[in-house]
Design brief:
The chain is mainly beta and 171 residues long. Strands 1-2-8-3-6 form a 5-stranded antiparallel beta sheet. Strands 5-4-7 form a 3-stranded antiparallel beta sheet, with no helix packed on it. A two-stranded antiparallel ribbon has the order 9-10. A hairpin with a 2-residue loop joins strand 9 and strand 10. This is Cysteine dioxygenase family protein. Belongs to the cysteine dioxygenase family. GO terms for molecular function: dioxygenase activity.
Length: 171
Amino acid sequence: MTAIFPTSSPSISLSSSPSSSPVRRRPTSGTARAALAQYLATHDPLSAVDLSVPERTWVRVAHGEDADIWLITWPAGSSTGWHDHGSASGAFVVLEGQLTEYVWTGVATATTLQSPGVREFDGSHIHDVINHGVRTAVSLHAYAPSLAAMTRYELVRGRLQVTGVEQRETW
């Protein structure tokens, strides 16, 4: 997979070693997008994917001070349910197939992303991602700062209600 992303972040550290930069900026969706670009420049995430697994799967494939990278497979019909990413901003790229993202802004709006579609979001973003396609989709996600918690929601009578908060330890 070859992908080129324009980035505005100076440098992203995906290793676990401390940054030599004396100035630390708060990570943003641009940081997440740059982390995706850096990861894709040196890795082929599709080479390790099993498209025959019947459930949605996710694995953290890289982590560092600035961002975590997750690879997710989406069999037809699978979804995340309504959720946010705590205070983390993020970005994801569809590597294979297509995904529909429903974003909550008081109402749900939908956008379908096909490979190599990229989506960026800030820390206030609430969404549900679904594979409405007929074949397995694959996406690569980056969260900055590292994903520590996710709030789950349920749509009840036209409003989102919190159903729980998942901490990193449960993934």
